[in-house]
Specification:
This protein is mainly alpha-helical. It is 48% helix and 10% strand. The protein has helices at 2-24, 74-105; strands at residues 28-29, 36-37, 51-54, 69-71.
């Protein structure tokens, strides 16, 4: 009888210990209710880049719409400028090709009078 009580205490203590360990180390992040229970939360931005400024401090409560970080805009500006330059270059090449085509298909003056 004594061994049954001891086994039950060991099993119960083990279950209680595992439950306590689960509760202490539980890192939960839900998206439906925006519920986060964790010491560390990973945040994934929609764009990549270097963080220029962090607008929150540790343990600060945030709400929807709060600015968390500012990403350095310079690489994005450079990419836009590069694409605009490439587009201008392609437009110039297209105009040049169109002028060559127009010149090739235009009626030629042979220099002979009738």
């Amino acid at each position: 009888m004594n061994s049954r009580v001891r086994r039950a205490a060991i099993v119960g203590g083990t279950i209680a210990g595992l439950f306590l360990l689960y509760e202490v180390t539980d890192f939960v992040a839900y998206t439906d209710g925006a519920y986060v229970r964790s010491d560390l939360v990973a945040v994934a931005p929609e764009v990549t880049g270097t963080v220029a400024k962090v607008h929150v401090v540790d343990n600060q409560r945030v709400k929807v719409g709060d600015l968390l970080v500012t990403i350095d805009p310079e690489p994005h500006r450079l990419a836009v400028a590069q694409r605009a330059a490439l587009s201008a270059q392609e437009s110039a090449l297209l105009r040049n090709a169109q002028e060559e085509l127009d010149g090739a298909t235009a009626p030629r003056d042979t220099g002979k009078e009738r």
